[in-house]
Amino acid sequence: MARPDRSIDPRIIKSAEKEFLANGYEKASLKEICQKAQITTGALYKRYKGKEDLFCAVVADTVAALNAVMEEKCSISVEKLSDEELVTAWEMNASTLWWFQFLYEHRNGFLLLIKCAEGTRYSDFQHDWVEVMTGKSYEYFLETRKRRLTDASISRDEMHILLSAFWTTIYEPFIHGYGWEQIKEHCKLICDLFNWRRVLGFPSV
Q1: Residue 204 pLDDT
Q2: Which site among 75, 142, 154, 192 is 20 to 30 Å from 131 CA-CA?
Q3: What is the spatial distance between Cα 147 and Cα 83, in angstroms, rounded to a whole number?
Q4: Contact status, residue 174 vs residue 181, Cβ threshold 8 Å
């Protein structure tokens, strides 16, 4: 009895990732993907419903990793945090570098989501991700106001705008193909640019 070729799926994913990165979802060719994976189109359609289904399979691990991080962050009960924890949550250096390290480990999938997803269910990924981040961030901010740690007045819409600007500075190095050393230097610039303690009205340290 012939053994199933278990190398087919990894070959498809690898070939599809390269094609989507090179041409974006809309211009990507299933024919090219199949040729480079050395399979027939019939073999591909046995595994995936079509091009979008294949794109989603390519980014699945990255999406799962991002969702896991966000679920962990959203599970934090801000009411149980100390005053110091609420304020230091806005410190930039360590947390921003952590995000860059995490995203760099998932850089191909992340780049597909932020640059190559037009035409898929992830077309609005950049906006949707910021919106999720805004929800939890604003919850932190409201708790600081409730405890009179700040008297700054910032609406949820303003928080979304600020975080959109912040996350654009996160996205762009990946779009421009920065290496890790460049990203570390870029991280320092971001931390100098975004002084959340001042914006949110926390005392200077």
Answers
A1: 64
A2: 192
A3: 8
A4: no
Q: 28 near 36, Cβ under 8 Å? A: no
Q: In this structure, is residue 33 part of a structural domain? A: yes
Number of other CB atoms surrounding residue 67 within 10 Å: 11
At residue 3 the predicted structure's pLDDT band, cuts being 50, 70 and 90, is: very low
Q: What is the DSSP string of 54-79?
A: HHHHHHHHHHHHHHHHHHHHHT--GG
pLDDT band at 102 (very low <50, low <70, confident <90, very high): very high
Q: Is 69 domain-assigned? A: yes
Calpha distance 136→147 (Å, rounded): 17
CB 24 within 8 A of CB 2: no
**Whether 175 contacts 114, CB under 8 Å:** yes
